[in-house]
Design goal:
Layout lengths: L3 H35 L1 H27 L2 E8 L7 H14 L14 E7 L6 E7 L3 H5 L7 E5 L10 E11 L16 H6 L10 E10 L2 H38 L2 H12 L18 H5 L8 E12 L4 H13 L6 E5 L2 E3 L2 E3 L6 H11 L9 E3 L33 E8 L5 E7 L6 E4 L6 H14 L3 E5 L5 H9 L8 E5 L8 E2 L13 H16 L7 H23 L11 H7 L1 H10 L6 H10 L9 H12 L1 H7 L8 H6 L3 E5 L5 H19 L12 E5 L2 H7 L1 H10 L8 E4 L7 H10 L2 E4 L4 H10 L6 H5 L5 E8 L2 E9 L3 H4 L9 H11 L3 E2 H24 L6 H4 L4
Parallel strand pairs: 14-20, 14-21, 15-18, 15-19, 16-18, 19-20
Antiparallel strand pairs: 1-3, 1-4, 2-3, 2-6, 5-7, 5-8, 6-7, 7-11, 9-10, 12-13, 17-24, 21-22, 22-23
Length: about 900
Amino acid sequence: MDTAAPHLSSQASASASASGHVPGLISSIVHTVGWVITYWWVVALTAVAVWATGEAVLRHLARKASAERMALELEPSRHFDPALEEIFRRGVQLARASTAMPWWAPRRSKAVQIRLRADGSSPLRYRIEGPAGGERLLSITPFGPDVTVRRARPLVDEPRDHVVRAEFLLRGKPTAPLREVPLNPDPLQPLIDAVSDLRAELGDLAEIRLDIQRAPKWALRARRLQLMGDARRVERREAQRAARWVRQDATGIEDSLTWQLQQLVAVKQGAGGRRLVMPPVPRRVDPEEALGKLAEDDHLVRVQLLVMCASNTEGRAEARLAQLQAAVDVFGGGSRWAMRGWRVGPWRFGADRWPSRHGFERRWNLGHCQPPRPNWVRLDELTGLLKPPTAHCRLPLLAGDLPTFEHGDPELLLQGIYRGPDGRRRLVATYAKETLFEVGVGKAGGGKTERALAQAIGWAHAGGGLLFVDPHRDSWPRALPFLAHDHLMPRIALVDLNASGPAAQLSCWNPIGMHQGQVAHEVVEATADAYASVLGWDDATAPRALTIFTAALAVLVAVNEAACQAGRPEDQATIFHVRSLLTDPVFRTTALTAIEGRLDEETRSWWRTVFPTLPTDAFAVVLNPIARLAANPVTRAFLGQPAGIYNIRAAMDSRMIVWVCPGGNGPTDRLITALLARDLLRAVRSRRDTPEAQRVPFRPYFDELITLTGAAPETIAAMFEDFRKYKVHVHGMTQLLARLPIPVRLSLVQNASTLASTAGSQSAIAPITAEWGDRPSPDVVAALDRFEHYMSLTVEGRRVGPVRITGPHLDSVFADYDRPAKAGALERAARATAGAAPLDQLTDRADNQLTRVSAFLAESSAAQPAVHLQKKRKYQ
């Protein structure tokens, strides 16, 4: 008993001590709470100081991390058409790259930014900015070679007078996805349409920035717990509401007269009692249904959408923001993008006003992703924004894409009138040095010739030289009043073979003349090839005719060379003297004797040994086309002059404006056309003697290519293949591309800098639209109105279009150049420059030319030494 007493006493003292500590603890707590209540401002200031210090540290670290960001610009090709899987993989790359930051970087700086920018330089620039450590990951895209990725430089914007800002937040059901937007048409199309009427000269600017970062796991778990709790509470409320309605329904039934009668009957039969009511129990909440897109962590990201519009014109920035807001509405579904802020009367309080503006500008300038609410989306909801514009996107034509035409500018070539999305019309052009060859296709009267005339007139007024070949002559009277200017008249020459009437005047040309410094063998080759192309001669079908004609030309060209060197160009032979050379022994002997020293040994041997063995009927195939030319007084007068004025090489070098109207498409006309075309080819190739930098640009226009190529298909094809080297650029027009010879058609399409088509049948237009990938399709082009064109152009080395352009009409585009009162003076001056003379006078001269040539040859032969007299007999 005595030993247990100390133990009991110690327990008692411990209990007393413990009972004494409890009131002390309670009193301490009460005292502390009282102090906090009394000095709450100290606690508040401490909390604010701790928060401010932490925020300052985070901002400093975030700013430091943002200074190490990099930028990439993505430029898609015209045929960029990615699959959904490729776009999704790109989204995974972006999400992964957002974490390529140092460990100390705050979460707000761990983001990748997609910048969609329109400032007038391009329809929509697609740019990626993110951590420098993610550059290697982002540089290689799943899009392959269809997208060019290059390192981008920092963008510096000049201050604009009017700027509006907006931030878009996800509204609606937080677990619901955005609308699934198809890839065709491109999901970016509404955004591009919203900036399609942007005008760089007014300082317009629009930019959308989408920041992507991986969703924080702790915030996601907390949100899931909240959503599940909300779903369970909703389910319990629904169950309680259903139970309440069940009880009310049961009570109502029991109070009814019918139910009471049923109960009386049931009691008599031994059954009765009250109905047992079983209230519904709460349904089990399905996590997939309650959490929606937040159910899984995979490919879930947090996004921030910021928009800024600016302009130097009041009201344009606000209107642009409204257009972009409407474009963003396209992505709305169960969840939608809504502009942050609220409206009070005419004022809107949002990113443009305090207190949101400072935070907006900090996030805009530093690329921080710190939205005021969690905008969680899955990558497949952002499909439309994870790639540049695709082939299914209709891009507007900006001033930077196609320059605006200015009258008198020699560097620009008029193409037509473009009507912008805002309804504004402007004259558009291509750069002259890049417009190497053009092809225009379409039905008659569709506007091909009118557009070519407008282009040619603009080029002429800018100081350029050109050749307009029109077999039907309709283009000359149409262009006449717009070219009737004093400074142009000395440069214009008209070669018109449509001579008619008693006072008809005609120019002249000697295809084998040597008075203009031509090279003998080139003249022979050009003339022989022209005949061969029209008559279908080649080494397989007509070798003898080709040999005879070439040998005859060699002799006549040598005669003309001798006459020019003797200072007597008026005594030159013409193409009609081939008949005298082949059928007149005296003329042949005199000619061969006079020029024997000018012929090579092979040609002399042929005339001595082979020619005497030829039968007389072998000459018919050569002489028949010459006889047809001689039978026509116009062609006889045109080709029968010894020293013609027409010199296309001199016209090229002196920037002349030459109009050539061959006169039709008959056999004789085709032969004239072939001679002119082959001479043009010879003249252009002769520019090899001029350094490239000194070659003057020249532009031949060929109207009715079907007619021209029927005469010289190989020659026209060679023009489209070779002329670029000599700064001669061909423009061709035709109604049917399929009717052109295959070599011409292939050369046209292959080398064309500009492809244009007006309305026509679908079968006729299909070859052109096929070059565009049938975008637009033939049925769309076939339905065009008159003077409307679809065309693809080349600007700064890249193809623009096909784009719809209205052909220029002379009466409107060149109204200030119209001088109808001077049209007659220009007609006379153009004929005088071309050396036109009365048809009767030219005919008489052509008839007497054989006598002059024979006299010259006789004098030259008489001057030969006596040693040559014996050789004369060998040619007889």
